[in-house]
């Protein structure tokens, strides 16, 4: 964002502590100084982006015509990323006018953050699960029945990554089971005819330890390589969930494990963090 506008970050460690203000433009720090903590109001961190495309008047003119759509894209990107950090309160405000696009209080669990963003009906349809495997820990939410929302995200060491290889093995495990059939008691009768337009929901939080964590957090954009242990971990988590709800037989489980061992690699690299689209207006992001 600093390549197309002025980014100002105001932050403090605690609500009673001192505050610092930093400004960044073109990936260079312009200044970093102490500031009045009252600037933060009830927040610990405020991120402001100003003068977007100020140096590119032609592009800014084009962007101004589609600001609502672009703000919608930014909203979705921030909502998805907030799933990985439900304890952080988040508010998106446009300038001028102080119009609040969304505001989420700090949530003690991923399930409550799901309820804040997608509604109680979605959150009530989910089941939590945890699993440890070969140096990795997984905590996630799965929907008990397919839903219209296609919410399928994977965080690794706090970063939204969504590796195609892991999404493929997770979807394959659900496809190999009785999840989307009449044997799933959680599916409403009137929904059976609309299953083609419905998808399993899963949000997986994976933590690694030691050298693996250092590799993941320091990997440059587009260079993340998924180890076989992660494929196995995601497959086992899906199997554990499906078996818990009696939606996967022994033969289906063996087929899912075999499929994960030979899952195809994507034909192209992918970005670790696909950021929101550029836009031509000021946006203020508030976090605690």
The share of residues in helices is 25-40%
Strand line-up in the sheet with most strands: 3-2-1-4-12-5-6
Q: Which band does the percent of strand residues land in?
A: 25-35%
Number of separate helices? 8
- The radius of gyration over CA amounts to 21 Å
Structural description of this entry:
This protein is an alpha+beta fold. Helix content is 30%, strand content 26%. The chain contains eight helices and twelve strands. It has helices spanning 57-64, 67-82, 110-118, 120-124, 164-175, 211-218, 228-244, 250-261; strands spanning 6-11, 19-25, 28-35, 45-50, 90-95, 99-104, 126-133, 136-143, 152-156, 159-160, 202-208, 282-287. The strands form two sheets. The chain has a seven-stranded antiparallel sheet with strand order 3-2-1-4-12-5-6, covered by helices on one side. The chain has a five-stranded mixed sheet with strand order 7-8-11-9-10. Strand 7 and strand 8 (136-143) form a beta hairpin. The model is unreliable at 267-283 (pLDDT under 50).
